[in-house]
Amino acid sequence: MFVNERRVALGSDGRYRVRQRLKLGIHKYAFRATDEWRNRAEKLIDVGRKRLDLALSSYHALVIGNNEYRNIPKLKRFPRVLDDHYSSSVTRLISATRYDVSGAMSNLRASLACDTGLLIYCASHSVVDLVTERGYWLPVKAGQTNLANWVSNDDITDMLKTILTRRTD
User: Does CATH number 3.40.50.1460 belong to domain 58-168?
Assistant: First the structure.
């Protein structure tokens, strides 16, 4: 089974599930299936999303502050983040590793409801790799030339897509 040219796994009962964040507006979906005898079926549908003016039930923040690097100079200015508006719903990562960032994102994915808001703030070094033309966050164990502990912007984007909050900033 394919949905918009992406393969979708079928369950043992023949059902499938597609999770997709929808921006405001009309989205076109193409469903294509081929059975064991090579019979094909295709269905095109439009899915619309309208703006809902519903209040968020709560706000959460993930605040990452990295300045204790082993192989990289410290930041010249290390900001302090006020969290009066978030109170106890702040996850603070100080001197975070790649594992810490991924783990915090996984915890947010598992714990946040879809009617919540999420703010992510990161104060750390970052770099653009000229070969891949990708941006990376540099956790505290990152080396200046070894990508093993870097966190790519694409990885962050992929993790954020799995956290189904109403609003993420």
Answer: yes
